[in-house]
Task: structure prediction
Amino acid sequence: MELNEIIGEKIKSLRLEKNLSQEKLAGMAEIDRRYMQSIEGGKRNISLNTLLKIARALNVKMSIILENID
Result:
């Protein structure tokens, strides 16, 4: 599995744990919903800046999203 797919799955999992829609999370992170969809689908490489925005919107540290990635 590619790195972007692993990160996308982790973001999706955290989003679902918090009962957020992709649209709601994208709005909270101030990114486009289609971009969020492509991140969760593992189709986009995500910048650290965008990862930070998503982590803040999910109210988690970036390290939570990146944990267990070798």
